[in-house]
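Collaborator request, handled under Task 6.
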Amino acid sequence: MRFIYAEYNMHHNCIDVTTFDGYMLRIDCGKAEEGLKTTPCSECALNALAIDEPLEYVRLYLEGNMQMWIDAEDSLEVW
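Structure tokens returned to the collaborator:
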């Protein structure tokens, strides 16, 4: 599937994606993040990603790489 546009929808805490084929896809951020192991820092980064880079958030979710991204964010955290 090729994407054309993605936007964070703050009223539903989801990302709405429109494809080149004219289909709408809605990713519920609450459901997408269920079961993920996060820290306060990585949770903040994940929220910022959904709002600022929604297409990247969707790509990570659909490819199953969200936990790997979170783990990388946590490894960057400075103590």
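The cover message to the collaborator said: "The chain has a mean pLDDT of 91. The longest strand covers residues 3-9. Please let us know whether this matches your experimental observations."
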